[in-house]
Amino acid sequence: MRLTLADAAEPIDTLGELHSDTQAVYWLARCPQTGDMQLWRWAADSNEAPQCLIEDAVGSRVNQYGGGSYTPLLEGIVWVRQHDQAIMHRDHHGASHCWQKRPQTAYGGLCADSKRQRVFAVEEDTHGQRLIAINASHRYVLAEGRDFYGAPILSDDGNYLAWVSWSLPDMPWQRSLLHLAQVTANGRLTAFERWDFGAAISQPQFGPHNALICMSDPAGWWQPWQVSLATPLCLSSTPVDHITTPWQLGERQHAWRDNRQVYCQLHQGAAQLYRRSGEQVEAVLPTPGRVVSITLARHGDYAIVQSATSGAQLIRFTENCPHRCLAGNVVDNVAGSLVVKNSAIAQWLEAPVGNAGETAHGFFYSASANHTAPLIVRVHGGPTAATYPIYDPLVAYWQQQGFHVLDINPRGSGNFGRRYRECLAGQWGISDTDDVIALVNAACECFAIDTARCFIRGQSAGGFTALNALATTPLFAAATSLYGVTDALSLSAKTHRFESGYLAWLIGDETQLAQRSPTYHVTRCQRPLRALFIQGGKDAVVVPEQTHAMARHIEQQGGEAQTLLFDNEYHGIRHPQARQTMLARELAFYQ
């Protein structure tokens, strides 16, 4: 089946933020008409179709990347309205009320406190962040003084609250603290405890008997630790990451309930989901891919997953029962079978880089036609994010248009342990460019590639790498920068607070910030360059002025710079029509 441009424009992150209560399971799904996230519900063990509860856009803007934008509460829902960041409550009758709305204030990381009919949340304004509790009539500040807060989680009995905090210049995957407090009868916090592993701590969860379990990487991998003991205990010695890099609030990729655990492990950049019941362990996914979110309830275990043969799916899996797909790509909803649609199977590719024994990794997708073909190289954003070997309609579309595609995970990417991630310290603008070159050369040795028609595209931090690679090596005929970083020095002065200390770790001082930037390399390049720039007019992470300045630099050097600006988009192009326009322009640019 030939994919259309509309198919190609479908984002891969169509489902997210999974929750459950005693009656139902909840999730966010991207609206096909607007690209906004809406809240859905399925009544457990019913034959009813899932129901859209909140048609307004639901989404947090804390740290710009959001997360934790709703939570079930007493047969109702508390959620963050995306456009104004108001905290809204929808009761069990379906009536909505505004609990809190403050100018220039964002909310995220919502966690229900059913015992006291309120929610915990991270509140962010121009003065900083704090952890609060809020209901229809009152707002209480529970913790403040640290630069950032995240991942509040309440024990099942409502007696203990855990959360994570960190301060600049650290990012939450570099160094963070875990906090635990007892919740008093009047809802205040007391008996504070704190853990500092000298590393990062993420995704705290309460297990049976209020056992506090978190993910931390003091041994070099994100592994589960039980900390509510005299001496913290690592629960898995397997030397792989068990969660992804924590860019958002409210992420949950492991869960513990009664005598069972559901968790993931990442091998060669792909996640397998496991379910442990007593001493029995089963792999849930037919093939590894990506695990987005997990929730456990008495009526079943649920996960949002992606695989090589399907887009995002919400699956329900119970012991000795076939998996059931509740949302996402479905062929037969009764059988719960996976859809196989233009699947593009990734081939693992690696190349030696840096010091002896170091390698960079990627996934190669062959063009549909069995002959020499041009290549599109994709660099993910982050730069500590990652790419996965999962079905992406854009990759399948490009294959059908006659392109090979290479998705790369340069050093610094997540899912390969702390050492791989920290290879980027002080090296951004050097090692990532080296990794691109090494992987493209390796691909050209292994596959039939038209070396005169190699293109590179990157989004956000990936745009920085793509433009640097374009300017420093003749490997690429052209580059596409999607809201990409072009001037690290300017970015350090104007970017948002969450990443305000990140660039010093990635690159160094002001001189290095200037000399590692695409702006610096472009003005010294002796060949005319071709680049396409795609930018959101409301982007607060990489502001539009950076993109326009970079386009002018290329033109002043005798090159060609095309710019496509979407006035109402932020850091990422979300509206379906805007995405189609963007991809049509990009395909024409490569052709």
Helices and strands in order, then pairings?
Elements: H1 5-8, E1 15-20, E2 24-30, E3 37-43, E4 51-54, E5 70-73, E6 76-80, E7 87-90, E8 96-100, E9 106-113, E10 118-125, E11 128-134, E12 139-144, E13 148-154, E14 160-166, E15 177-183, E16 189-195, E17 201-206, E18 212-216, E19 223-226, E20 233-234, E21 254-257, E22 260-267, E23 270-277, E24 280-283, E25 290-297, E26 300-307, E27 310-317, E28 324-328, E29 347-352, E30 359-365, E31 373-379, H2 393-400, E32 404-409, H3 418-422, H4 431-446, E33 449-459, H5 461-472, E34 478-482, H6 488-494, H7 502-506, H8 510-515, H9 518-524, E35 530-536, H10 544-556, E36 560-566, H11 576-590
Parallel strand pairs: 31-32, 31-33, 33-34, 34-35, 35-36
Antiparallel strand pairs: 1-2, 2-3, 3-4, 5-6, 6-7, 7-8, 9-10, 10-11, 11-12, 13-14, 14-15, 15-16, 17-18, 18-19, 19-20, 21-22, 22-23, 23-24, 25-26, 26-27, 27-28, 29-30, 30-32
Helix pairs in contact: 4-5, 5-9
Number of helices: 11
Rg, alpha carbons: 23 Å
Calculate the terminal CA-CA distance, rounded to whole Å.
Answer: 22 Å
Helix coverage percent: 10-25%
Spatial order of the strands in the main sheet?
29-30-32-31-33-34-35-36
Keywords:
single chain; 591 residues; alpha+beta; eight-stranded mixed β-sheet; four-stranded antiparallel β-sheet; 11 helices; 17% helix; 38% strand
Notes on the protein architecture:
- By secondary structure, the chain is of the alpha+beta class.
- 17% of the residues lie in helices and 38% in strands.
- The protein has eleven helices and 36 strands.
- Strands 29-30-32-31-33-34-35-36 form an eight-stranded mixed β-sheet, with helices on both faces. A four-stranded antiparallel β-sheet has the order 1-2-3-4, with no helix packed on it. Strands 5-6-7-8 form a four-stranded antiparallel β-sheet, with no helix packed on it.
- It is globular and about 70 Å long.
- It starts with a helix and ends with a helix.
- About 2% of the residues have low confidence.
